Amino acid sequence: MSQPLLTLDFLDTPAAPAAADHQPAQDVRVSPATRTGRQRKLYIESYGCQMNFSDSEIVSSILFEEGFDTTEQLADADLVLLNTCSIREKAEQTVRMRLSQINSHKKRNPGLLVGVLGCMAERLKSKFLEEEKLVDLVVGPDAYRDLPNLIREVDGGQKAVNVLLSRDETYADITPVRLNSNGITAFVSIMRGCDNMCSFCVVPFTRGRERSRDAHSIVQECRDLVSQGYKEVTLLGQNVDSYKWTSEDGQEFVNFAQLLERVALISPELRVRFSTSHPKDITDEVLHTMGKYENICKYIHLPAQSGNSRVLKLMNRTYDRPWYEERVQAIRRILGEDCAISTDMISGFCSETEEEHQETLSLIDFVQYDMGYNFFYSERPGTLAARKLADDIPLEVKKRRLQEVIDRQQLHARARYARMVGRVHRVLVEGRSKRSEEQLSGRNSQNQVVIFPKGTAQKGDYVNVLVTSTTGAALLGDIV
Ligand code: SAH
Ligand code: SF4
Ligand code: F3S
Question: Against a cut of 0.85, is the pTM above it?
Protein backbone atom coordinates (compact mmCIF):
# COMPACT_ATOMS: atom_id res chain seq x y z
CA MET A 1 0.00 0.00 0.00
CA SER A 2 1.31 2.25 -0.67
CA GLN A 3 -0.55 5.30 -1.01
CA PRO A 4 0.91 8.65 -0.21
CA LEU A 5 -1.74 9.97 -2.53
CA LEU A 6 -3.59 11.27 0.47
CA THR A 7 -0.73 13.18 1.99
CA LEU A 8 0.00 16.84 2.25
CA ASP A 9 3.09 16.55 0.12
CA PHE A 10 0.76 16.25 -2.78
CA LEU A 11 -1.20 19.37 -1.91
CA ASP A 12 -0.95 21.88 -4.63
CA THR A 13 1.03 19.54 -6.81
CA PRO A 14 -0.54 17.74 -9.72
CA ALA A 15 -2.97 15.33 -8.12
CA ALA A 16 -3.30 13.55 -11.41
CA PRO A 17 0.27 12.36 -11.45
CA ALA A 18 2.37 13.31 -14.40
CA ALA A 19 5.34 11.18 -13.56
CA ALA A 20 5.57 7.49 -13.50
CA ASP A 21 7.92 5.41 -11.46
CA HIS A 22 8.78 8.05 -8.93
CA GLN A 23 5.50 8.21 -7.13
CA PRO A 24 4.82 6.31 -3.93
CA ALA A 25 8.01 4.34 -3.53
CA GLN A 26 10.35 7.22 -4.19
CA ASP A 27 8.58 9.63 -1.91
CA VAL A 28 10.80 10.35 1.07
CA ARG A 29 10.04 11.95 4.40
CA VAL A 30 12.39 13.34 6.96
CA SER A 31 10.73 13.33 10.34
CA PRO A 32 10.49 16.80 11.88
CA ALA A 33 12.23 17.69 15.13
CA THR A 34 10.82 17.09 18.59
CA ARG A 35 12.56 19.19 21.23
CA THR A 36 11.87 17.84 24.68
CA GLY A 37 15.42 17.90 26.01
CA ARG A 38 16.08 14.20 25.50
CA GLN A 39 19.75 13.14 25.62
CA ARG A 40 20.20 11.63 22.19
CA LYS A 41 19.02 12.62 18.73
CA LEU A 42 17.34 10.37 16.18
CA TYR A 43 17.24 11.30 12.49
CA ILE A 44 14.70 9.16 10.65
CA GLU A 45 14.05 9.15 6.93
CA SER A 46 11.17 7.14 5.51
CA TYR A 47 10.68 5.75 2.01
CA GLY A 48 7.81 3.93 0.32
CA CYS A 49 4.21 3.83 1.34
CA GLN A 50 2.05 5.38 3.99
CA MET A 51 2.44 2.27 6.15
CA ASN A 52 6.14 3.02 6.42
CA PHE A 53 5.51 6.67 7.29
CA SER A 54 3.08 5.50 9.92
CA ASP A 55 5.58 2.94 11.26
CA SER A 56 8.22 5.67 11.62
CA GLU A 57 5.84 7.40 14.02
CA ILE A 58 5.66 4.18 16.06
CA VAL A 59 9.46 3.82 15.99
CA SER A 60 9.87 7.42 17.15
CA SER A 61 7.43 6.78 19.96
CA ILE A 62 9.36 3.68 21.12
CA LEU A 63 12.69 5.53 20.95
CA PHE A 64 11.28 8.63 22.62
CA GLU A 65 10.74 6.44 25.68
CA GLU A 66 14.37 5.40 25.33
CA GLY A 67 15.64 8.97 25.52
CA PHE A 68 15.69 10.05 21.88
CA ASP A 69 14.31 13.27 20.45
CA THR A 70 13.98 13.44 16.66
CA THR A 71 16.02 15.91 14.64
CA GLU A 72 15.62 17.14 11.06
CA GLN A 73 19.38 17.60 10.73
CA LEU A 74 21.49 14.61 9.85
CA ALA A 75 24.49 16.51 11.21
CA ASP A 76 22.94 16.61 14.71
CA ALA A 77 22.05 12.92 14.85
CA ASP A 78 23.42 10.23 17.18
CA LEU A 79 21.32 7.61 15.43
CA VAL A 80 20.25 7.59 11.76
CA LEU A 81 17.45 5.27 10.70
CA LEU A 82 16.30 4.71 7.13
CA ASN A 83 12.85 3.14 6.94
CA THR A 84 13.08 1.48 3.55
CA CYS A 85 10.94 0.20 0.67
CA SER A 86 11.47 -2.77 -1.68
CA ILE A 87 8.45 -2.45 -3.93
CA ARG A 88 10.45 -1.75 -7.12
CA GLU A 89 14.14 -2.01 -7.90
CA LYS A 90 14.39 1.74 -8.17
CA ALA A 91 13.10 2.18 -4.61
CA GLU A 92 15.96 0.01 -3.36
CA GLN A 93 18.53 1.84 -5.50
CA THR A 94 17.41 5.13 -3.99
CA VAL A 95 18.06 3.77 -0.50
CA ARG A 96 21.48 2.37 -1.49
CA MET A 97 22.50 5.76 -2.83
CA ARG A 98 21.34 7.46 0.32
CA LEU A 99 23.24 4.95 2.45
CA SER A 100 26.48 5.71 0.64
CA GLN A 101 26.01 9.42 1.39
CA ILE A 102 25.28 8.65 5.02
CA ASN A 103 28.28 6.38 5.20
CA SER A 104 30.62 9.12 4.09
CA HIS A 105 29.08 11.28 6.84
CA LYS A 106 29.71 8.46 9.30
CA LYS A 107 33.38 8.28 8.36
CA ARG A 108 33.70 11.81 9.65
CA ASN A 109 31.57 10.99 12.74
CA PRO A 110 32.61 7.52 13.87
CA GLY A 111 30.23 7.54 16.87
CA LEU A 112 27.17 7.78 14.62
CA LEU A 113 24.92 4.71 14.58
CA VAL A 114 23.20 3.77 11.32
CA GLY A 115 20.20 1.47 11.09
CA VAL A 116 18.02 0.15 8.31
CA LEU A 117 14.35 -0.56 9.02
CA GLY A 118 11.36 -1.61 6.96
CA CYS A 119 10.88 -3.74 3.90
CA MET A 120 14.43 -3.75 2.55
CA ALA A 121 15.71 -4.75 5.98
CA GLU A 122 13.25 -7.62 5.99
CA ARG A 123 14.08 -8.69 2.43
CA LEU A 124 17.87 -8.63 2.79
CA LYS A 125 18.19 -9.49 6.49
CA SER A 126 21.77 -9.92 7.71
CA LYS A 127 22.98 -9.75 4.09
CA PHE A 128 22.62 -6.03 4.55
CA LEU A 129 25.43 -6.03 7.09
CA GLU A 130 27.70 -7.82 4.62
CA GLU A 131 26.78 -5.58 1.72
CA GLU A 132 26.76 -2.26 3.56
CA LYS A 133 29.61 -2.49 6.02
CA LEU A 134 28.79 0.71 7.86
CA VAL A 135 25.25 -0.34 8.79
CA ASP A 136 25.02 -1.23 12.50
CA LEU A 137 21.42 -2.25 12.84
CA VAL A 138 18.88 -4.12 10.66
CA VAL A 139 15.29 -4.29 11.92
CA GLY A 140 12.22 -5.67 10.14
CA PRO A 141 8.70 -4.17 10.35
CA ASP A 142 7.47 -6.49 13.11
CA ALA A 143 10.50 -6.10 15.42
CA TYR A 144 10.38 -2.42 16.35
CA ARG A 145 9.57 -3.15 19.98
CA ASP A 146 13.00 -4.75 20.20
CA LEU A 147 14.76 -1.54 19.08
CA PRO A 148 15.81 -0.47 22.61
CA ASN A 149 17.58 -3.82 23.17
CA LEU A 150 19.12 -3.79 19.73
CA ILE A 151 20.44 -0.27 20.23
CA ARG A 152 21.99 -1.32 23.54
CA GLU A 153 23.77 -4.14 21.69
CA VAL A 154 25.06 -1.66 19.13
CA ASP A 155 26.11 0.75 21.88
CA GLY A 156 28.12 -2.18 23.26
CA GLY A 157 29.99 -2.45 19.97
CA GLN A 158 28.02 -5.26 18.31
CA LYS A 159 26.00 -5.29 15.11
CA ALA A 160 22.34 -6.13 15.70
CA VAL A 161 19.64 -7.75 13.56
CA ASN A 162 16.01 -8.62 14.24
CA VAL A 163 13.89 -9.48 11.24
CA LEU A 164 11.43 -11.87 12.84
CA LEU A 165 7.96 -11.54 11.39
CA SER A 166 5.01 -11.92 13.71
CA ARG A 167 1.49 -13.27 13.36
CA ASP A 168 0.02 -10.94 15.94
CA GLU A 169 2.09 -7.76 16.30
CA THR A 170 -0.07 -4.70 15.51
CA TYR A 171 1.57 -2.13 17.83
CA ALA A 172 -2.01 -1.50 19.00
CA ASP A 173 -0.95 -0.09 22.36
CA ILE A 174 1.72 2.31 21.07
CA THR A 175 0.60 5.88 20.59
CA PRO A 176 2.46 7.17 17.54
CA VAL A 177 4.39 10.45 17.75
CA ARG A 178 2.58 12.35 14.97
CA LEU A 179 5.54 13.29 12.82
CA ASN A 180 3.88 13.31 9.42
CA SER A 181 1.05 15.51 10.40
CA ASN A 182 -0.23 19.03 9.99
CA GLY A 183 -2.32 18.68 13.16
CA ILE A 184 -5.47 18.23 11.05
CA THR A 185 -5.11 14.92 9.21
CA ALA A 186 -3.65 11.71 10.62
CA PHE A 187 -3.02 8.14 9.53
CA VAL A 188 -4.18 5.22 11.62
CA SER A 189 -2.95 1.70 10.86
CA ILE A 190 -5.76 -0.83 11.16
CA MET A 191 -3.95 -3.91 9.95
CA ARG A 192 -0.52 -5.17 8.95
CA GLY A 193 0.88 -7.60 6.42
CA CYS A 194 -0.77 -9.14 3.39
CA ASP A 195 -1.91 -12.67 2.51
CA ASN A 196 -2.71 -12.07 -1.13
CA MET A 197 0.43 -13.17 -2.91
CA CYS A 198 0.00 -11.15 -6.08
CA SER A 199 2.70 -12.68 -8.22
CA PHE A 200 4.63 -9.43 -8.82
CA CYS A 201 4.63 -8.22 -5.23
CA VAL A 202 7.26 -8.35 -2.52
CA VAL A 203 4.99 -7.09 0.29
CA PRO A 204 3.83 -10.49 1.62
CA PHE A 205 7.52 -11.39 2.04
CA THR A 206 8.53 -8.15 3.70
CA ARG A 207 5.48 -7.53 5.85
CA GLY A 208 4.37 -11.04 6.70
CA ARG A 209 0.92 -12.42 7.37
CA GLU A 210 -2.17 -10.29 7.42
CA ARG A 211 -3.49 -9.38 10.86
CA SER A 212 -6.13 -6.93 12.03
CA ARG A 213 -5.72 -4.58 14.95
CA ASP A 214 -8.11 -4.53 17.91
CA ALA A 215 -11.16 -2.47 16.84
CA HIS A 216 -11.41 -0.76 20.23
CA SER A 217 -7.83 0.47 20.08
CA ILE A 218 -8.47 1.90 16.61
CA VAL A 219 -11.63 3.73 17.72
CA GLN A 220 -9.86 4.98 20.84
CA GLU A 221 -6.92 6.31 18.80
CA CYS A 222 -9.36 8.15 16.50
CA ARG A 223 -11.23 9.58 19.50
CA ASP A 224 -7.96 10.82 20.98
CA LEU A 225 -7.12 12.46 17.67
CA VAL A 226 -10.47 14.26 17.65
CA SER A 227 -9.90 15.52 21.15
CA GLN A 228 -6.52 16.87 20.02
CA GLY A 229 -8.21 18.82 17.22
CA TYR A 230 -7.68 16.46 14.30
CA LYS A 231 -10.36 16.62 11.59
CA GLU A 232 -9.51 13.70 9.34
CA VAL A 233 -8.26 10.14 9.75
CA THR A 234 -7.12 7.76 7.05
CA LEU A 235 -7.44 4.10 8.00
CA LEU A 236 -4.48 2.24 6.55
CA GLY A 237 -3.88 -1.31 5.41
CA GLN A 238 -2.67 -3.15 2.31
CA ASN A 239 -6.13 -4.56 1.90
CA VAL A 240 -8.53 -2.80 4.27
CA ASP A 241 -11.60 -4.64 3.00
CA SER A 242 -10.34 -7.88 4.49
CA TYR A 243 -10.15 -6.30 7.97
CA LYS A 244 -11.65 -8.69 10.47
CA TRP A 245 -11.27 -8.69 14.21
CA THR A 246 -12.75 -10.97 16.84
CA SER A 247 -12.58 -10.19 20.55
CA GLU A 248 -10.65 -12.61 22.74
CA ASP A 249 -13.84 -14.05 24.25
CA GLY A 250 -15.22 -14.57 20.73
CA GLN A 251 -18.29 -12.46 21.52
CA GLU A 252 -17.58 -9.54 19.24
CA PHE A 253 -16.81 -9.60 15.53
CA VAL A 254 -16.01 -6.50 13.49
CA ASN A 255 -15.60 -6.39 9.71
CA PHE A 256 -14.36 -3.39 7.72
CA ALA A 257 -17.81 -1.92 7.05
CA GLN A 258 -18.56 -2.08 10.77
CA LEU A 259 -15.22 -0.56 11.71
CA LEU A 260 -15.80 2.27 9.24
CA GLU A 261 -19.18 2.93 10.80
CA ARG A 262 -17.74 2.97 14.33
CA VAL A 263 -15.10 5.50 13.29
CA ALA A 264 -17.62 7.62 11.36
CA LEU A 265 -19.85 7.77 14.44
CA ILE A 266 -17.12 9.31 16.62
CA SER A 267 -17.95 12.78 15.32
CA PRO A 268 -19.70 14.19 12.23
CA GLU A 269 -16.83 16.72 12.12
CA LEU A 270 -14.27 13.95 11.62
CA ARG A 271 -13.64 12.98 8.02
CA VAL A 272 -12.85 9.33 7.43
CA ARG A 273 -10.75 8.04 4.55
CA PHE A 274 -9.21 4.64 3.95
CA SER A 275 -6.67 2.94 1.71
CA THR A 276 -6.18 0.46 0.01
CA SER A 277 -9.25 -1.41 -1.24
CA HIS A 278 -8.69 -4.69 -3.03
CA PRO A 279 -11.19 -5.19 -5.88
CA LYS A 280 -11.79 -8.80 -4.85
CA ASP A 281 -12.86 -7.82 -1.33
CA ILE A 282 -14.72 -4.50 -1.52
CA THR A 283 -18.32 -5.30 -0.57
CA ASP A 284 -21.65 -3.58 -1.16
CA GLU A 285 -21.88 -3.35 2.63
CA VAL A 286 -18.81 -1.08 2.65
CA LEU A 287 -20.27 1.01 -0.18
CA HIS A 288 -23.62 1.36 1.63
CA THR A 289 -21.82 2.39 4.83
CA MET A 290 -19.94 5.04 2.83
CA GLY A 291 -23.26 6.25 1.44
CA LYS A 292 -24.87 6.38 4.88
CA TYR A 293 -22.35 8.77 6.46
CA GLU A 294 -21.59 12.16 5.00
CA ASN A 295 -18.25 12.24 6.81
CA ILE A 296 -16.92 9.11 5.08
CA CYS A 297 -15.15 10.56 2.06
CA LYS A 298 -16.38 9.56 -1.36
CA TYR A 299 -13.09 8.35 -2.71
CA ILE A 300 -11.93 4.79 -3.31
CA HIS A 301 -8.43 3.71 -4.26
CA LEU A 302 -9.15 0.50 -6.17
CA PRO A 303 -5.97 -0.69 -7.90
CA ALA A 304 -6.76 -2.65 -11.06
CA GLN A 305 -3.11 -3.41 -12.11
CA SER A 306 -4.28 -4.48 -15.60
CA GLY A 307 -7.39 -4.37 -17.78
CA ASN A 308 -6.85 -7.83 -19.24
CA SER A 309 -8.15 -10.99 -17.59
CA ARG A 310 -5.28 -13.24 -18.70
CA VAL A 311 -2.70 -10.84 -17.27
CA LEU A 312 -4.74 -10.48 -14.08
CA LYS A 313 -4.67 -14.25 -13.72
CA LEU A 314 -0.89 -14.33 -14.18
CA MET A 315 -0.67 -11.57 -11.59
CA ASN A 316 -2.71 -13.77 -9.23
CA ARG A 317 -5.07 -10.89 -8.51
CA THR A 318 -7.97 -13.40 -8.18
CA TYR A 319 -10.47 -11.24 -10.09
CA ASP A 320 -10.96 -10.76 -13.80
CA ARG A 321 -11.96 -7.77 -15.85
CA PRO A 322 -15.75 -8.38 -15.70
CA TRP A 323 -15.52 -8.63 -11.89
CA TYR A 324 -13.60 -5.35 -11.67
CA GLU A 325 -16.07 -3.61 -13.99
CA GLU A 326 -18.96 -4.90 -11.90
CA ARG A 327 -17.38 -3.49 -8.72
CA VAL A 328 -17.00 -0.10 -10.44
CA GLN A 329 -20.65 -0.26 -11.50
CA ALA A 330 -21.61 -1.04 -7.90
CA ILE A 331 -19.72 2.07 -6.76
CA ARG A 332 -21.54 4.17 -9.34
CA ARG A 333 -24.90 2.60 -8.48
CA ILE A 334 -24.58 2.96 -4.71
CA LEU A 335 -22.52 6.15 -4.39
CA GLY A 336 -23.24 7.92 -7.68
CA GLU A 337 -21.06 9.42 -10.40
CA ASP A 338 -19.32 11.81 -8.03
CA CYS A 339 -17.49 9.14 -6.04
CA ALA A 340 -13.83 9.38 -7.02
CA ILE A 341 -11.97 6.23 -8.02
CA SER A 342 -8.22 5.86 -8.45
CA THR A 343 -6.03 2.99 -9.56
CA ASP A 344 -2.54 1.56 -9.73
CA MET A 345 -1.53 0.02 -13.08
CA ILE A 346 1.52 -2.04 -13.98
CA SER A 347 2.71 -1.80 -17.59
CA GLY A 348 4.76 -4.50 -19.29
CA PHE A 349 4.09 -7.37 -16.91
CA CYS A 350 5.50 -10.74 -18.04
CA SER A 351 4.21 -11.72 -21.51
CA GLU A 352 1.75 -8.79 -21.77
CA THR A 353 0.86 -8.37 -25.45
CA GLU A 354 0.09 -5.15 -27.26
CA GLU A 355 -3.62 -6.09 -27.36
CA GLU A 356 -3.61 -6.78 -23.63
CA HIS A 357 -2.01 -3.41 -23.02
CA GLN A 358 -4.81 -1.86 -25.14
CA GLU A 359 -7.29 -3.48 -22.75
CA THR A 360 -5.68 -1.60 -19.86
CA LEU A 361 -6.28 1.60 -21.82
CA SER A 362 -9.88 0.61 -22.48
CA LEU A 363 -10.43 -0.13 -18.78
CA ILE A 364 -9.15 3.36 -18.01
CA ASP A 365 -11.75 4.69 -20.46
CA PHE A 366 -14.45 2.54 -18.87
CA VAL A 367 -13.79 3.71 -15.31
CA GLN A 368 -12.68 7.29 -16.05
CA TYR A 369 -10.34 7.36 -13.08
CA ASP A 370 -9.86 10.51 -11.05
CA MET A 371 -6.28 9.59 -10.30
CA GLY A 372 -3.75 6.93 -11.10
CA TYR A 373 -0.43 5.66 -9.82
CA ASN A 374 1.19 3.88 -12.69
CA PHE A 375 4.40 1.91 -12.88
CA PHE A 376 6.30 -0.29 -15.24
CA TYR A 377 6.90 -3.82 -14.06
CA SER A 378 10.01 -4.33 -11.98
CA GLU A 379 10.90 -7.93 -11.18
CA ARG A 380 11.35 -8.57 -7.47
CA PRO A 381 13.52 -11.49 -6.32
CA GLY A 382 11.66 -14.31 -4.62
CA THR A 383 8.19 -13.40 -5.87
CA LEU A 384 6.03 -15.91 -7.74
CA ALA A 385 6.53 -14.00 -11.01
CA ALA A 386 10.31 -13.95 -10.59
CA ARG A 387 10.32 -17.70 -10.02
CA LYS A 388 7.82 -18.77 -12.67
CA LEU A 389 7.52 -16.12 -15.38
CA ALA A 390 9.98 -14.49 -17.76
CA ASP A 391 10.42 -10.73 -17.44
CA ASP A 392 10.30 -10.57 -21.20
CA ILE A 393 8.99 -7.14 -22.16
CA PRO A 394 11.86 -4.86 -23.25
CA LEU A 395 12.34 -1.79 -21.08
CA GLU A 396 11.57 0.64 -23.94
CA VAL A 397 8.28 -1.15 -24.56
CA LYS A 398 7.39 -1.07 -20.85
CA LYS A 399 8.15 2.63 -20.74
CA ARG A 400 6.19 3.42 -23.88
CA ARG A 401 3.15 1.49 -22.63
CA LEU A 402 3.45 3.20 -19.27
CA GLN A 403 3.46 6.60 -20.93
CA GLU A 404 0.32 5.67 -22.86
CA VAL A 405 -1.35 4.61 -19.62
CA ILE A 406 -0.37 7.88 -17.93
CA ASP A 407 -1.56 9.98 -20.88
CA ARG A 408 -4.90 8.21 -21.08
CA GLN A 409 -5.46 8.41 -17.36
CA GLN A 410 -4.64 12.12 -17.25
CA LEU A 411 -7.17 12.80 -19.94
CA HIS A 412 -9.88 11.42 -17.66
CA ALA A 413 -8.48 13.06 -14.54
CA ARG A 414 -8.71 16.46 -16.26
CA ALA A 415 -12.28 15.75 -17.30
CA ARG A 416 -13.16 14.67 -13.76
CA TYR A 417 -11.75 17.96 -12.44
CA ALA A 418 -13.58 19.93 -15.14
CA ARG A 419 -16.95 18.47 -14.19
CA MET A 420 -16.55 19.88 -10.66
CA VAL A 421 -16.41 23.48 -11.92
CA GLY A 422 -19.50 25.56 -11.15
CA ARG A 423 -20.35 23.58 -8.02
CA VAL A 424 -19.96 24.24 -4.31
CA HIS A 425 -17.61 21.87 -2.46
CA ARG A 426 -17.17 21.30 1.26
CA VAL A 427 -13.45 21.65 1.84
CA LEU A 428 -11.36 20.87 4.90
CA VAL A 429 -8.69 23.56 5.11
CA GLU A 430 -5.28 21.96 5.53
CA GLY A 431 -3.01 24.97 5.33
CA ARG A 432 -1.54 27.69 3.23
CA SER A 433 -1.31 27.10 -0.49
CA LYS A 434 2.23 26.57 -1.69
CA ARG A 435 1.69 29.24 -4.31
CA SER A 436 0.74 32.17 -2.15
CA GLU A 437 0.43 33.40 1.44
CA GLU A 438 -3.00 34.72 0.56
CA GLN A 439 -4.41 31.39 -0.58
CA LEU A 440 -5.48 28.37 1.40
CA SER A 441 -5.47 24.79 0.28
CA GLY A 442 -7.59 21.83 1.25
CA ARG A 443 -9.42 18.88 -0.24
CA ASN A 444 -12.98 18.00 -1.05
CA SER A 445 -14.57 14.68 -0.21
CA GLN A 446 -13.28 13.27 -3.53
CA ASN A 447 -9.69 14.04 -2.46
CA GLN A 448 -9.30 16.75 -5.09
CA VAL A 449 -7.13 19.70 -4.08
CA VAL A 450 -9.07 22.98 -3.81
CA ILE A 451 -7.32 26.39 -3.61
CA PHE A 452 -9.01 29.66 -2.69
CA PRO A 453 -8.35 33.14 -1.19
CA LYS A 454 -8.11 32.76 2.57
CA GLY A 455 -10.59 35.35 3.83
CA THR A 456 -11.09 34.63 7.53
CA ALA A 457 -10.81 30.85 7.24
CA GLN A 458 -8.19 28.92 9.20
CA LYS A 459 -6.46 25.58 9.05
CA GLY A 460 -8.87 22.92 10.34
CA ASP A 461 -12.06 24.76 9.28
CA TYR A 462 -14.62 23.34 6.93
CA VAL A 463 -15.54 25.87 4.25
CA ASN A 464 -17.86 25.85 1.27
CA VAL A 465 -16.01 26.79 -1.88
CA LEU A 466 -17.64 27.65 -5.20
CA VAL A 467 -15.25 26.24 -7.77
CA THR A 468 -14.83 28.55 -10.75
CA SER A 469 -11.96 26.94 -12.65
CA THR A 470 -9.45 24.11 -12.69
CA THR A 471 -5.79 23.79 -13.54
CA GLY A 472 -6.43 20.16 -14.46
CA ALA A 473 -4.73 19.12 -11.24
CA ALA A 474 -6.44 21.38 -8.69
CA LEU A 475 -9.74 23.23 -8.35
CA LEU A 476 -9.75 27.02 -7.89
CA GLY A 477 -12.60 28.98 -6.36
CA ASP A 478 -13.92 31.25 -3.61
CA ILE A 479 -15.48 30.69 -0.23
CA VAL A 480 -19.24 31.28 -0.34
N1 SAH B 1 -1.94 -3.49 -1.50
C2 SAH B 1 -2.07 -2.67 -2.63
C3 SAH B 1 -0.79 -2.34 -3.32
C4 SAH B 1 0.46 -2.09 -2.57
S5 SAH B 1 1.93 -1.88 -3.52
C6 SAH B 1 -2.96 -3.37 -3.64
O7 SAH B 1 -3.07 -4.57 -3.66
O8 SAH B 1 -3.49 -2.71 -4.48
C9 SAH B 1 1.52 -0.43 -4.46
C10 SAH B 1 1.56 -0.60 -5.93
O11 SAH B 1 2.87 -0.84 -6.38
C12 SAH B 1 0.77 -1.78 -6.46
O13 SAH B 1 -0.59 -1.52 -6.53
C14 SAH B 1 1.39 -2.02 -7.80
O15 SAH B 1 0.75 -1.27 -8.81
C16 SAH B 1 2.80 -1.49 -7.61
N17 SAH B 1 3.76 -2.60 -7.62
C18 SAH B 1 3.87 -3.59 -6.72
N19 SAH B 1 4.85 -4.44 -7.08
C20 SAH B 1 5.36 -3.98 -8.25
C21 SAH B 1 6.38 -4.43 -9.14
N22 SAH B 1 7.04 -5.56 -8.90
N23 SAH B 1 6.64 -3.69 -10.24
C24 SAH B 1 5.94 -2.56 -10.49
N25 SAH B 1 4.97 -2.10 -9.70
C26 SAH B 1 4.67 -2.80 -8.59
FE1 SF4 C 1 1.03 -6.74 -2.84
FE2 SF4 C 1 -1.20 -7.83 -3.76
FE3 SF4 C 1 -0.81 -7.64 -1.14
FE4 SF4 C 1 -1.30 -5.47 -2.58
S5 SF4 C 1 -2.71 -7.17 -2.27
S6 SF4 C 1 0.29 -5.70 -1.02
S7 SF4 C 1 -0.26 -5.91 -4.49
S8 SF4 C 1 0.38 -8.90 -2.55
FE1 F3S D 1 5.29 -0.14 1.57
FE2 F3S D 1 7.38 -0.38 0.02
FE3 F3S D 1 7.06 -2.01 2.00
S4 F3S D 1 5.36 0.12 -0.64
S5 F3S D 1 4.87 -2.18 2.34
S6 F3S D 1 7.38 0.19 2.13
S7 F3S D 1 7.79 -2.56 0.00
Answer: yes
